[in-house]
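job 3f2a | input accepted
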Amino acid sequence: SLAMTPEGVNAALRAIYAAQNNEQRQAAENVLNGYSHLKGFSPLLLQISSNSEMEVIIQQGAAVYLKNLVKKYWVAEDSSASLDVGDKEVLKSAVVASLLSTSYAVSLQMSEIISLIAVHEFPQEWPSLLPSMLQLLKQTDLKKQTLILKSLHGYFKRYRSVFLNDTLKVELNYVYQELAAPLTQMFTMFC
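job 3f2a | predicted structure (191 res):
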């Protein structure tokens, strides 16, 4: 079994893509699955997926694995299976910046990760999300702005099927207050 180091995780990700058959691929996936509940694993995946010196296929593999980890264990039925609280904070503080520091394919995964976390954390437990996204929206090119808007859309589309209640009204009001002016300004720049 490989140690949970950047090199060990990188080797396991590499082994998945180099596998000649299902048994080899499954063995490599089992190594990663063995790390899934260890403190520091999810931030390590984020670090690997954001490292521009890594091959894109390894970055993307780390991002996909991280997305699946967040989907499955951010809020697990058995609380002992949930991701480490400290790791969650690290992810929330770093994932938005990683949206723009990676290849387009990896950025799409980061966008999904942001949406998955936001469902559980925004706005009460992740108040910095919207200001961080808006800050990035101001300082980037059109392709990056599109990625940020897609990420916001990925989260905000949940409002379509949610019944309106007092909590939701407060959240929608907050989102409107934060987004209305920057989006209007952005719209007028392109028209």
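job 3f2a | The chain has nine helices and no strands.
job 3f2a | closed
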